[in-house]
Specification:
Strand order of the largest sheet: 2-1-3-4-5-11
CATH architecture of the largest domain: 3-Layer(aba) Sandwich
Oligomer: single chain
Helix content: 40-55%
Number of helices: 11
Largest sheet: 6 strands, parallel
Distance between the termini: 76 Å
Order of helices and strands: HEHEHEHEEHEHEHEHEEHEEHEEH
Number of strands: 14
């Protein structure tokens, strides 16, 4: 009898030791660069968080911290979340890369995920979306619709993600209109509606009639509508903010990735790595085409389908930078490494990448 009880005790102890630390609920944390609001980059990440909750129900508990600045604030926020028992943490902006990498070393049992970066470690993965695919379609539309031959772009920070989207937007426009010129204003912020609006207004005053942006508020699009020109929403469908101005918008769909990686932690098979989501996976989406002629809409749809089907690549050589240096040989398609380190403007953009 004693031997049977002893065996049962050993079996129970073994089972207990095999249970993950999150046997009750998996704790999932999110670090946001801006306010959640109801539009833009951070809003779409939070939609992903909400979809994690809907998918897993009471198996998970999610938390988030919004408007976290780069540098020491980010490091403190990530460390606090790890100390608080988070099993996996998603940091959703480029500037969180180094702070997260540092904290990841201190908490080897926590899984860390960094959006739009390029560094990984044993317990830190990186992830992003090929949003330049949708941006190229925007460029196609801009090239076909501009009447002044001047398009413009409100940029946040000069990092590879933003640079490649400026380039692909310009390449799309140039493909349709060889006379097109582009102006770029950097606001050095992901979310600053007054500065974004001012940047757009300045370029519109100088003749821009197609406004694109890589910032998080609808202010540039609203400024476009106020001045009787058109433009494109960023990260989410922003047509309700500027129903007469929005032509389409890039829509970031983070939900499939978040659900997949949380499931991997639950299953015990999470792995580090680098993810770069494609339009064909429905993670890079676009808002309906509006406020444009039927022929423009049809051609934009054709380009979109070509990208989705893997038959059309915006970054196909020959491509030179604006100093004349050959960056992609004839027929060469840009590799992910090339795209993720892109810090040059393509030929035709009369500007210098800020340092």
């Amino acid at each position: 009898m004693k031997s049977i009880l002893r065996a049962m005790a050993v079996a129970t102890l073994s089972l207990f030791l095999c249970l993950p630390a999150f046997a009750d609920k998996l704790k999932v944390g999110f670090i946001y660069v801006g306010p959640i609001g109801d539009h833009g980059w951070t809003y779409r990440h939070d939609i992903g968080r909400q979809d994690v909750e809907k998918h897993f129900g009471d198996k998970v508990e999610t938390t988030y911290i919004e408007s976290v600045k780069y540098g020491p604030d980010a490091e403190r926020a990530i460390r606090s979340m790890a100390k608080g028992g988070a099993d996996i943490i998603f940091a959703t902006s480029f500037g969180y890369m180094e702070p997260m990498l540092k904290v990841a070393k201190e908490f080897p049992n926590v899984k860390f995920e960094h959006a739009t970066g390029y560094k990984q470690s044993k317990n830190m993965a990186s992830y992003g979306l090929r949003l330049y695919q949708a941006r190229h379609v925007q460029g196609i539309i801009a090239g076909m619709m501009t009447k002044t031959n001047k398009i413009c772009y409100v940029g946040a920070f000069p990092i590879p993600e933003v640079i490649r989207e400026i380039n692909t937007f310009y390449l799309g426009a140039k493909k349709m209109n060889p006379k097109v010129d582009i102006d770029i204003v950097w606001v050095n912020s992901w979310y600053n509606p007054p500065k974004e609006a001012d940047a757009a207004a300045v370029m519109i005053a100088e003749g821009c009639d197609m406004v694109a942006q890589h910032t998080d508020s609808p202010a540039p699009l609203q400024t476009a509508q106020k001045n009787g020109v058109t433009g494109f929403g960023q990260a989410s469908d922003q047509i309700r903010f500027a129903p007469k101005a929005q032509l389409t918008a890039t829509i970031d769909n983070w939900s499939p990735y978040y659900i997949k990686k949380v499931q991997a932690v639950i299953d015990g098979n999470w792995k580090s790595g680098d993810y770069f989501g494609h339009m064909k996976d429905d993670v890079v989406q676009m808002a309906p085409f509006t406020n444009m002629p039927v022929d423009v809409q049809a051609f934009a749809q054709k380009i979109k389908e070509g990208i989705r089907d893997g038959k059309y690549f915006a970054f196909t050589g020959p491509i030179k930078d604006n100093t004349g240096k050959l960056q992609l040989k004839d027929g060469e398609i840009a590799s992910d490494a090339h795209l993720n380190s892109m810090m040059y403007y393509v030929e035709g953009i009369d500007a210098t990448v800020p340092k």
